[in-house]
Amino acid sequence: MKLSIVIPLFNEEAVIGTTYSRVSEMLAGLTSQNLISDFELLFVDDGSRDRSLQILRTLALESPRVKVVSLSRNFGHQRALAAGLLHASGDAIVSLDADLQDPPELVPEMIGHYRKGRDIVYAVRTLREKDTFFKRATARFFYRMMQTMGVDLIYDHADYRLISRRVVEAFRSIRETNIFLRGIFPYLGFDQEIVYYERQERHAGDTKYPLGKMLSFAWEGITSFSNVPLRLASLTGLVISCASLALVVWALYEKFAGRTVPGWTSTVIPLFFIGGLNILFLGLIGEYIGKIYMEVKGRPLFFVKETHNLADASRSETGPRHTDASH
Ligand code: UDP
Ligand code: MG
Question: Measuring CA to CA, which residue among 321, 282, 284 is closest to residue 303?
Answer without folding.
Answer: 321
